Amino acid sequence: HCRHTIFNDPLDEVRDGLFKTFIKKATEEIRKKRGRKDFCISVFTDNSGAIALDSNWLITAKVETHNSPSALDPFGGAITGIVGVNRDAIGFGLGAKPVVNLYGFCFASPESKEEYYRDTKLIQKLLSPKRILEGVVKGVNVGGNCSGIPTPQGFLYFDQNYHGKPLVFVGTLGLIPKKINGKPSYLKKAQPGDYIIMVGGRVGIDGIHGATFSSEVLHSGSPAGAVQIGDPITQKKLSDAIIKEARDQNLYHSITDNGAGGLSCSVAEMAKEAGGFVVDLEKVPLKYEGLTPWQIWISESQERMTLAVAPKRWKKFLNLMRRRGVEATVIGKFTRRRKAVVQYKGEKIMDLDMDFLHDGLPPRPMKTSDFSKIYPETKISFKKNLTDVLLKMLSWPNLTSFEFISRQYDHEVQGISVIKPLQGAGRVNNEATVVKPVLNLNKGVAISQSLYPRYGLINPYWMAACTIDTAVRNLISLGVNLEKIALLDNFCWCSSNEPERLGQLKQAVKACYDLAIAYDTPFISGKDSMFNDFKGYDKNRQPIKISILPTLLITSLGIVDNVEKVVSPEPKFADDIIYILGETFEEMGGSEYSAFFNSVGNKVPKVNANQNKKNYQQLTKAIEKGLVSSSLSITRGGLAFALAKMAIAGNLGIKVLLKNLPGQFKRDDFSLFSESQGRILITVAPKNKEKFEKFLSGTSFAKIGKTTSQKKIVIYNKNNQPIVNLDLNQALKAYKLTFKDF
Prior knowledge:
The protein is of the alpha+beta class and 742 residues long. Among the domains are: 188-362, Alpha-Beta Complex (Phosphoribosyl-aminoimidazole Synthetase, Chain A, domain 2), CATH 3.90.650.10; 380-393 and 567-735, PurM-like C-terminal domain (Phosphoribosyl-aminoimidazole Synthetase, Chain A, domain 2, Alpha-Beta Complex), CATH 3.90.650.10. Helices cover 30% and strands 25% of the residues. The protein is built from 21 helices and 35 strands. Strands 11-13-10-14-12-15-16 form a seven-stranded mixed beta sheet. It has a seven-stranded mixed beta sheet with strand order 29-32-27-33-30-34-35, with helices on both faces. Strands 1-2-3-7-4-6 form a six-stranded mixed beta sheet. The protein starts with a helix and ends in a 7-residue tail after the last helix.
């Protein structure tokens, strides 16, 4: 869990491991190429990655998963996930203020009635997908809202392969001055002789084996006690005392989070800065009596940070914490001697060389086998009238509104929202959001997320490529410059000890390198969760294994130079011209349209990164000149869904002619629901038509229609025959239908 062995160990000819060879290498090459234009400040070395907002401020970012805990205790797993990743901001450098929360949930259908059990006696029943959904949504709600951190960005995704284990992604962006007391804020170093200070909550048996439990298959022996108990109020007091006072008073040398592994990891990681450490476990504050030394050492009880405080500053630090109602305790000392020593009531219970502790794990060479799977080709009856199909697709779980989440997650606290989670008159869920973290600064941060798990069933390389292209494109549609975009990768895999699964992983990671290099978008942080499987029994006591889809989440963040120039997705006026940027092909493999008809297909979308890059750069220039009224990235659901979403958002009708659509396609339905990459819908005022088209010359774009005052979505095929004629109110009702009672 903490060493990321699958990404760091040799795999086939990749002797240095996937992480160093592809993810880290891509970032290193991009940073070297950019030179002085490099905006990366801290990557792969701290609790979060960091980029420069401007010359005075940094933005930190980290996304985690809390899958196994959320399968057993949805509320507890989710709340500890979100408050835990908040601490990855607080623990960055000398301490960043959490300013944005992110979320993403992958579940089985809440309508699912299948029953599965962890034991043959049929006593340990898996929680229903609906109960998991409700608990997880509530957990992130309480964790974020009670902490006073806005939660503007997130997604929902459904597939029955997540019935055994859900995926619960949680992330936090932080804000920190570039310099504190004249020194770089992102540098920290525990000094020999510094006290080891534990602050925040007390230690209990909750969360013991949390790290190891998260890195294995869910089974009958999975311990519910491994799920930590979260308390956002305690953490809020701790966070404010650190960020608002202790940090700027220079009261400590270093700080980190007590997350996976508890004190055993936080102390050992910080000790690398000084040399070694000595810890007296009897000094650790406990919730109750009866804990053994090993339990104290590895407990993952929440709301705790570890700090390095010089003895001469200890009393001042302690008095500050007491005034703020935060418990702080000296539990040991950092030493120059490279030894990791743990004592309990005078008895030495651990004495290891620091070099062995951190680097003593022997490499485990792994082998892959080729992944290749052919599915029956998509066989969908051709329909001349696609109105009913579009209407049903608007209620499809992976496309429909999840406003019920956006409404309960506070995105206005701290007063920094610009592009909001629900946008336009129709309140559609946004693919990307923008915040303004420094209120007297016009710069902003744009955030988006992307994943295409079903593509991974067909081709993991193109799954990863499409995921990156979409995460980047979602920010481009706002007006973010490609040179100001950074990425975070979160791999959630299954059965990662099987050669075929490792073969899938290798393909996906290779695509991460290729696309990051193509777009010059560096990775700044990431995480992996590699055993998202369930082994148990069905109601007939037959053994069953459920493995998740190969899932890669890419989170993109971009620096917005002027928040007043960002473009939102809703059209503003009737008679604006509708353009499409990018080409459409009959790429139906893994699409939502194919899934709607219980099919998979084989022709997964591919990415022409060189052409897309040129398109994106030209669109950015047009947005910068104020020539674009609205724009929307075309993602899952294809062109038809994007057009409907745009119409709903603006409460305007649209009229579109497919005969002008760039690309190659024969069937009307495939042209509407293909998920070909690199495409963006754009509306432009008639007065800006010539200037806009001049900017886009040399790119693959076309005028395909216009917005109208008539509240209808009307689409004509290549032969000028109407294939969609949908009342806007019907579309809105369908879009809001699926989760209206949640």
